[in-house]
User: Which sequence fits this backbone?
């Protein structure tokens, strides 16, 4: 079974690890996952790029060619470079040992040049060859050049809109597949709908503020996306629950956007009408979870500043 590696950003490491695990399991439930700090090794029949394209916090990814006991390269290892026009060598040192990384990269480049016709290209190589060091194991891998992903556009930025990375991670944590539908009952400017559609997931947004609905519609239009937006109260979701597989939303905080009533009351009522047997990822201000009463499968706390810690709850 092919093995891939993913080096994750350390910004939200727990979220990042759970996200990549959820994506790998969504595509292939028999995937085997090994976590070495911010390095994740996945044994799966799913192509490495398919997993990396869905994920939010992957810095570098590639296919593993072999585990190494020492540092050596032979012709068999660089077979991948046979038809490549250009390459670059990169050392990822996740061990506690100190290496002279530029020197190691350049001597690895020299070694490879002896076996292969590929030329070194530091800017835009066809193949990147990786040496990954951890405290227990070292890996030798590579990645092929891929097209950069196009991010959804927005007509304008608003202070209350949700960070696209957290939105995307919530969609991935509940394993919504391409072709399925999610509902955001507090859709605001439509961040969830945009992220969902960029992954081939259909969206239904609800917002009681007509102005927000118009903004969300405009945001969808400039991207040529087709998610629906309903100008209604969040309760509407109960009537349309057969139309979606999951709920992903960011509840009102009572600061930058309008609210129909106190945010804590909204959260309580919303929680009580959540349809059963749906995947749910919701975000709210931590303090609104009075006595930590809201329960689910897992909670993440995201510290933003002194007066704002957000909770993501997966249900
Ligand atoms: C935190 S904002 C959502 C931001 C959104 N995720 C974005 O990226 O723009 C909460 C939204 O809930 C809406 N809202 C407040 N009370 C509501 C209610 N009772 N029913 C539906 N929407 C409501 C507000 O108009 C606001 O757009």
Assistant:
């Amino acid at each position: 079974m092919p093995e891939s590696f993913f080096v994750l950003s350390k910004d939200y490491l727990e979220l990042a690890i759970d996200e990549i695990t959820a994506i790998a399991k969504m595509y292939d439930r028999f995937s085997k996952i090994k976590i070495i700090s911010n390095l994740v090794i996945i044994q799966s029949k799913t192509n490495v790029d398919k997993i990396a394209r869905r994920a939010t916090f992957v810095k570098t990814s590639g296919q593993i060619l072999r585990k190494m006991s020492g540092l050596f390269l032979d012709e068999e290892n660089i077979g991948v470079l046979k038809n490549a026009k250009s390459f670059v060598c990169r050392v990822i040192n996740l061990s506690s040992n100190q290496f002279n990384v530029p020197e190691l990269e350049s001597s690895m480049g020299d070694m490879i040049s002896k076996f292969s016709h590929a030329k070194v290209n530091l800017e835009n190589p066809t193949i990147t060859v990786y040496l990954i060091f951890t405290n227990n194991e070292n890996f030798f891998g590579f990645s092929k050049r891929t097209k950069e992903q196009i991010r959804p556009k927005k007509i304008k930025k608003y202070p209350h809109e949700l960070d696209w990375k957290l939105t995307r991670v919530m969609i991935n944590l509940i394993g919504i597949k391409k072709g399925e539908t999610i509902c955001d009952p507090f859709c605001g400017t439509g961040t969830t709908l945009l992220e969902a559609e960029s992954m081939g997931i259909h969206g239904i947004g609800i917002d009681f503020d007509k102005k927000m609905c118009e903004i969300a519609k405009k945001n969808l239009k400039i991207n040529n996306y087709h998610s629906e937006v309903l100008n209604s109260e969040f309760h509407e979701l109960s009537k349309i629950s057969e139309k979606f597989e999951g709920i992903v939303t960011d509840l009102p905080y009572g600061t930058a956007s309008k609210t129909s009533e106190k945010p804590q009351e909204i959260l309580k009522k919303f929680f009580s009408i959540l349809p059963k047997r749906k995947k749910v990822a919701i975000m709210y201000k931590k303090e609104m979870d009075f006595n930590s009463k809201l329960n689910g499968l897992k909670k993440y706390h995201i510290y933003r500043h002194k007066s704002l810690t957000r909770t993501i709850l997966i249900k």
